[in-house]
Write a structure and sequence with these properties.
Number of domains: 2
Number of helices: 11
Shape: elongated
Mean pLDDT: 77
Radius of gyration: 24 Å
Helix content: 55-70%
CATH class of the largest domain: Alpha Beta
CATH architecture of the largest domain: 2-Layer Sandwich
């Protein structure tokens, strides 16, 4: 079922090709025949049972592409395995997210803030570690040039916590603060203690855990459970 779902778009593309030997070869490859079908199912079962979905997809690619009869056939086969690999790997919990492709991180990058003058706080670190797949906004604690750039983009307002000021950018998608929550470390300390993930500075999860425990909101309680579980079982 997994392989079938992953390859429906490729099968449609093959059927749309002009009638030719290449299309017939590609159709034959996708149908696979009994031997390839058994091999595919057996390898999928073995590697998935062992917790190695990427290995399953790559071994399938290596064995099956050896039978490729034409260049066009190979093109469609490569799409087949690319989709299969993506489907398999995305099913794993905690798979790394390409942060630079996330809409909020793209907006942050567009500001060209000096990376040594800010740190991502709030729920951003959970996104960075794959504990949450989506967040509603990015909270940034800034100093120096990063704060000056934010001030040029919009006027500051009082922070909701009553502690310091904030600048709302991208319709609230990016919130830049000149200091963080009451009881938190000073901006300089937070920024100097940042943990770097894929080129972005984030607050360490243990620090996030501390302030989310203090806030005690429903969404924070859920995040506390996620962070605690991650810290107890890193890499799981």
């Amino acid at each position: 079922m997994l392989a079938r779902a992953a390859t429906v778009p490729v099968r449609r593309e093959i059927e749309a090709l002009e009638d030719s030997s290449a299309r017939e070869a590609a159709r034959e490859f996708m149908s696979g025949g009994p031997a390839i079908g058994l091999l595919e199912r057996g390898l999928l079962f073995a590697f998935l049972a062992a917790g190695q979905p990427e290995a399953a997809a790559l071994v399938l690619a290596a064995k099956s592409l050896a039978r490729v009869p034409t260049a066009d056939h190979g093109k469609h086969a490569s799409k087949y395995f690319a989709r299969l690999l993506g489907c398999l790997s995305s099913s794993r919990r905690g798979d790394s997210l390409e942060l630079s492709e996330h809409p909020l991180l793209r907006e942050l990058s567009s500001l060209n803030l000096p990376s040594t003058d800010y740190v991502v706080a709030g729920s951003g670190p959970l996104l960075a570690h794959g504990l949450r797949r989506e967040i509603s906004d990015l909270d940034i604690v800034a100093r120096g040039e990063a704060w000056r750039i934010a001030l040029k983009a919009a006027d500051p307002v009082a922070a909701p916590s009553g502690h310091g000021r904030m600048v709302l950018l991208f319709e609230g998608g990016i919130e830049v603060f000149d200091r963080w929550l009451p009881g938190s470390r000073e901006p300089d300390e937070m920024i100097e203690g940042a943990e770097w993930v894929q080129g972005f500075p984030f607050c360490p999860l243990r620090e996030v855990l501390a302030w989310k425990k203090r806030l005690g909101r429903q969404k924070d309680q859920e995040d506390v459970k996620l962070i605690r579980n991650h810290l107890r079982h890193p890499g799981v």
